Amino acid sequence: MSQQSAGPATEPEKEKSSYTRILTTLVAVAIAIVGVLVILYAWQLPPFTRQVQTTDNAYVRGQVTVISPQLSGYITGVYVQDFAWVHKGDVLMTIDERIYKQRVHQAMAQLDMKKAALANNIQQRRSTEAAIVRNQAAVTNAQAQAEKARLDLRRVEDLVSDGSLSIRERDASRASYSQAKADIAQATAALEMSRQDLQTVIVNRASLEADVASSQAALELAQIDLSNTSIVAPRDGQLGQISVRQGAYVNAGTHLTALVPDAMWVIANLKETQMAQIQLGQPVTIRVDALDRAELNGTVENISPAAGSEFSAISADNATGNFVKIAQRIPVRIKIHDDGQYFRRLRPGMSVEVGINTAGGERRQGAAQ
Question: For helices 167-227 and 98-161, what crossing angle results, to 10°?
Fold first, then answer.
């Protein structure tokens, strides 16, 4: 009886054991499939390849201009407050201008003196030209006197030959002729000296003109320094914090404040593995953390010519034994569309999340090629 009852009891146990093995196998296969799917999803491999590439390594950027003086001196006036909106040309601060005004006056006096010297040179040239005319006349007169002395000497020699005049008178005529020729040489030398004096005056004029130009440049520099005592806004925008007060002494290059214009954009640092389908002109969704993740639209405007590591001051040296491959970041510039609501509330430096829609990127790339 016991053997007959044991036989039928083993069949359910075998069926249960077989069911357990099948269930265990199915669970193991399911776990393996889920693991493979997780890996494919993590690596963004098919069928989980994304058409939207996202990153939270993105920030709002703007053309922040540091306002600094070009001169040293005491601040005599601060005419703006923190975070004030200003227009191009508005006076923000002023530096004590007394010293720079005196430098302008000194430069003007130097310029007047150089101009007077140049005018005197013009008078010297006219005087030298008149001296040349006078010496030319002297040469002509000496030549005429010499010709007269030569003719007189010829007549005297003829009279001496027939005994009409004495040898003493002939010698006196010869001396007069020699004196006349010496007068020609002397007048010619004086004429050449006056011509050389004219060349000296002409050369000196070039030097004086250079002095006038130098004095004019010095005056313009002094006027530029005087104008730089007024620190003005280089463009429209909003100021940062004012870091100086009236009466403070500042040096050239001191950081006084910063000016932030309206122009803003986003720099998104994407992994190099996300760049395959990124193209110019693709639409972008921008979520701003500071605005309760409000969404703005944008467009891919430009792509960096190199990875961010290439622009670092100290480049990484990967020629070591403990090398670990790290995905590099490629900066992408994104133009922000002005929606009239959230755009005005953006500030450079804000963190954002971007999603670039790469749908159709391959077709655009092929069309571009």
Answer: 170
Range in 37-41, 249-253, 337-341 the model is least confident about:
37-41
Q: CATH assignment of 98-227?
A: 1.10.287.620
The domain ranges of the chain are 1-49, 51-62+262-369, 69-96+229-255, 98-227
Q: Which class is 69-96+229-255 in CATH? A: mainly beta
pLDDT digits (tens, 9 = 90+) for 237-277: 999 999 999 999 999 999 999 999 888 999 999 988 888 88
Bridge partners of 297, per DSSP, are: 285
How far is 336 from 283, CA to CA, in rounded Å? 10
Report which listed range, 91-95, 137-141, 152-156, is most confident: 91-95
pTM above 0.85, yes or no: no
In the block, which residue shows the tokens 């900066």? 331
- Indicate the burial class of 195 (C-beta count within 10 angstroms; 0-12, 13-18, 19 or more): middle
Give 74's contacts (C-beta < 8 A, 6+ positions apart).
95, 96, 247, 248, 249, 250
The CA distance from 3 to 282, in Å, is 80
Q: CA–CA separation, 198 vs 132, rounded Å?
A: 8
CATH classification of 51-62+262-369 is 2.40.30.170, yes or no? yes
